[in-house]
Specification:
By secondary structure, the chain is mainly alpha-helical. The chain has helices at 2-10, 13-53, 60-73, 81-93, 104-132, 143-185, 192-236. This is Os03g0419900 protein.
Amino acid sequence: MATAMVNHLAELPAPLAMVLSYADAARATLDEAAGLLREEIQATELLLAHAFSAIAPRDGPALAAAAKLAARVFSDAPLLPGAIRAAMGLVASVYALPPPHAGTLEDARLILGKVFDDHHDATWLFRLYANCTPNYGIQPGDETWQAWSARNEEAFHEAAAAETRLISAIWEARHAVRVHRDYQAQSRRREVAWEAKQILSTATEEVDAASVAVRRMRDALAAEEQIVREAIGEAAAP
């Protein structure tokens, strides 16, 4: 039973590496989308600067040009609609893609859930082993058990934290796309770049926090595996 648990634990780093890979890919996608939104924001700021510098003329061709520029500045239309559409397409890809994929963040969350279940199975095996082999020096409450329990609880805690962060990042990404659609319906398209960029910043922070939790989970699982291996070795010693 203990050997089966070790085998279970030894298989978990590979899917966790996939979780981190998907999280890194999602972060890169969100960064790219934020860059496109920055282009719209910078273009608007530049146009505003030119508009206000052109207000001084009071007559002649310069006045007509200034009026035309001001009308464009204060319209609802974004200056770079293609950039905003591309940004929202990128954002949507982190949570929704055509089957069999579900988006990079959704894929990360699904794999993490499978790791959680496998770790739960490994935990059950070790508890069964400890309770069924009292003469092998591994008993609930002893030093080995306490060391294992601490790392085991840490791994579960970090798994829950990572899942919470991934769910939050997915929600923020969906929110950014919803905001884009709502602003289009309300003819407030110019404002979407500013708000969506702030939302993406929060989503990126959540992805980063999820990655930190996954790495901590990975370390706790490695320590847990080491404790179990040592316990097996001591139990097998003459």
